[in-house]
Amino acid sequence: MPTQADDFLCEVFMDKYSPGHCPFPGSVVRHRGYRGIRLRMVLCGGHAGLFKGWEVKPLEEYRQAHGLIADAGVIGKRQIPAPYFTNFVESARNAETTTERNMWIAMHRAARTFAEFMYWQGHYAKYPLDLNRQTRDGARGHWDDAKEHAEGMYATYTREDHDKEERELPDYFLHSIQCLAAELLIHRPN
Ligand SMILES: [Zn+2]
């Protein structure tokens, strides 16, 4: 089956939450020649700034010029880190209290806005125009607001349902938000 440009995921290895390669769709390829061979790395918008000094090309353009095989640059198996919570919508449906339900809805919204931010970050990496930067900055503003709202909802939920207010989102929540955003992005129509 021929691969689509959106089959190419970022090749950066991360181990902040659980080791694996970055789950976000590739946006650009950075490359350089080295002793007659071509080194290259597929990068998402968030990681597009890595490998400074290497040439940069939008993924589709690089692919047409040099060919690209999905996951070819990944050494070992690609492990997309598993989210701790797999489905915020389902969790909201099964919530036992209104505060819990509101908290899950806020998490879902945070994942959606994070996906949009990552999309526009990738778009700007490909096409670094002022207009695209403005769109990216707007998307980051929405994500910041949604994250703050989710933190507030989480604080309310822990205070009202568990009598112990937690003001900071635990890492596994942020991790789940990122994983769901990656999933949303892979299926996002361009
Ligand atoms: Zn990445």
Structure write-up:
- The chain is mainly alpha-helical and about 190 residues long.
- The protein is about 50% helix and about 10% strand.
- It has 2 domains: about 5-65, no CATH class; about 90-185.
- Helix 3 packs antiparallel against helix 4 (about 130-160) and helix 3 packs across helix 5 (about 170-185).
- The longest helix has about 35 residues, at about 130-160.
- The radius of gyration is 19 Å and the shape is elongated.
- The two termini are about 20 Å apart.
- The mean pLDDT is about 85.
- The structure holds zinc ion.
- Zinc ion binds near residues 10, 12, 22 and 46.
Features:
elongated, binds zinc ion, 190 residues, 5 strands
Helix-strand layout with pairing:
Blueprint: E1 13-14, E2 20-21, E3 28-34, E4 37-43, E5 55-58, H1 59-66, H2 88-93, H3 98-126, H4 130-162, H5 171-186
Antiparallel strand pairs: 1-2, 3-4, 3-5
Helix pairs in contact: 3-4, 3-5
Task: Decide which structural class fits the backbone.
Answer: mainly alpha
Please give the radius of gyration in angstroms: 19 Å
The largest sheet is: 3 strands, antiparallel
Q: Identify every distinct bound molecule in the structure, by name, code or SMILES.
A: zinc ion
Please state the overall shape, judged from the principal axes of the Cα atoms.
Answer: elongated
The fraction of residues in strands falls at 5-15%
Report how far apart the termini are: 21 Å
Helical coverage, percent range: 40-55%
Strand order of the largest sheet: 4-3-5
**Overall tally of domains:** 2
Count of separate DSSP helical elements: 5
Average of the residue pLDDT scores: 87
Q: How many strands in all? A: 5
Low-confidence stretches: none
